[in-house]
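It would be a great kindness if you could assist me with a short task in structural biology. A protein sequence and the structure tokens that stand for its backbone fold form the material at issue. I should value your view on which stretches of the chain appear to form regular backbone elements. The record follows directly beneath this note.
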Amino acid sequence: MSDLVDGGLRWKLFADLPEHEYQDVRSKTNEVPRGAKADPFFVRQGEVGESVFFIEQGHVGVLVKPPGGGREATIRVLGPSDHFGELSVLEPGQSKERMASVKALDREVVARCLNRHDLDVLRKVHPAVDKALLNALAKEVARLSEEVVYALHRGLPAKLARKLVYLEGIYRHHPGEPEVEIPLNQTQLGDLCGAHRVDVNPEIGTLRRLGYIAPRGEPNENMRTIRIANLAKLRRRAGLPPETPSPHR
């Protein structure tokens, strides 16, 4: 899922930068550790964004709280080499409010942080950095458009299968790994599908009976882990061609 450079991750956002420019960007960042059980939040919705983050280790959940209040919902999961926070600092010299919170999902999550001022300087010094940010924005618009179309025209069985295919790619540590486990509960899976936990539970049961997944753990939703047992059939259920790479949604 990620490119390795000198034993470390090469971030997707700047994957096409020349090596010396990539290293220049990396040298301007600081390490930021977080953990699911202590100080889990990297950023919070509504605060002014002053930096962009690059995940080096672990996984994070992107959460949004409805305007009228209520429970935060997990709308996306990101893993090593992914980034977040760029939309708040995309306009040079201007900081915007964060549109979502980002929270560590694993016991140990490590990201590197690039502040807006250094990013603005890098965009002037290295035009490829500016181009990479604009390309990322275009890809995000395309991703969101595809998500809207899929949400309008697909039922929950296909939506859940699609999210599990995506999560399989996020949680796969290396190509050819025989088993991939997804440590998310039913509430989180429901959020990702735009559905309630009570609706997702029967679908999980169906996938288990079909042999596509193998849930593990105690009945308590916080202990639940899902093992992907048949990725090819999940792709088919999601309406994805068998050889299509996991869609990063």
